[in-house]
Specification:
Keywords: Signal
Number of helices: 2
Oligomer: single chain
Largest sheet: 11 strands, mixed
Organism: Nocardioides pinisoli
Strand content: over 45%
Protein name: Glycosyl hydrolase family 98 putative carbohydrate-binding module domain-containing protein
Length: about 270
């Protein structure tokens, strides 16, 4: 090979060594599908439902059931509740998760009002805590009618104590004077649905006495109780759903003297 050819070959080799091979850089962005699946697996998913939308304070038990994923058999879920208008959640109870991932919680509301429940699965085994959606419950409550401010009235003792068949009733409506009718009205404001009370002549009424009590709802008579010595109509319930105002008309015979009464009237209302 002559000198010129050798010089040409050397130049080509040097050029090849000086030119680096270009390699496309690997993408550093994580796969979005894998990332989403990873994030979902790191937080408990809790679903829950309640067996009723209404309950009576001190009488009913409500059940909240649901499921937690991923499964955490033997671990606990927490039932929480808050009253309407509050942002604070408080613990109501706990339950263990079954092998299927399902759970059942119970609560016995003791106070009337609107409240909300949710179920919390605390963090465990590297999985973040999760909560269910909020569940609303309307809790109705019985309250003494005579504790409310009465409306128009005459001839009736309000909140008086009396006896029927030797049983004492301490918050009653009592006809003031035998032979002279009386009445009293109460405004419910369409917030109540039931009225319950006991109706009778007082034990102080004379043998052979008689009387009547009529309960009216917004001007319409719903029921009239005819009373006589020894007649006791206990825990009688009147539907007052949607009632704005109720009225009691009371009468008793003048001779023999009879005093009709409404023992411990209560109304079931939602505050």
């Amino acid at each position: 090979m002559n000198r010129i050819a050798r010089v040409a070959c050397a130049a080509a080799a040097a050029l090849a060594l000086a030119s680096p091979t270009l390699v496309a850089p690997a993408s550093s962005a994580p796969d979005q599908t894998d990332q989403g699946a990873s994030q979902a697996a790191q937080t408990y998913k809790v679903t829950a439902s309640i067996n009723t939308s209404e309950a009576v304070a001190g009488e009913d038990t409500v059940r909240v059931s649901g499921k937690a994923k991923p499964k955490a058999a033997g671990q606990k879920v927490v039932l929480q509740q808050r009253p309407e208008g509050s942002k604070r959640w408080r613990k109501s109870g706990t339950a263990k998760i079954k092998s299927s991932g399902k759970f059942v919680l119970e609560d016995e509301p003791s106070r009337p009002g609107v409240r909300f429940y949710r179920v919390l699965k605390p963090a465990a085994d590297g999985v973040k805590a999760g909560t269910s959606r909020e569940l609303q419950l309307d809790v109705w409550g019985w309250e003494q009618l005579t504790w409310r401010t009465p409306g128009a009235n005459t001839g009736v003792l309000i909140g008086a104590g009396t006896e029927f068949g030797t049983e004492f009733f301490d918050d009653s409506l009592l006809l003031q004077t035998p032979g002279k009718p009386g009445y009293v009205e109460y405004t419910l404001g369409r917030k109540c649905r039931s009225l319950r009370a006991t109706y009778a002549l007082t034990d102080g009424s004379a043998t052979g006495a008689s009387g009547f009590v009529t309960v009216s709802v917004d001007g319409v008579a719903k029921v009239t109780h005819a009373l006589a010595t020894g007649t006791i109509i206990g825990d009688y319930v009147v539907d007052v759903t949607g009632a704005f105002r109720i009225r009691f008309d009371m009468s008793g015979s003048a001779s023999p003297a009879g005093a009709s009464a409404v023992g411990d009237p209560e109304v079931l209302c939602l505050p």
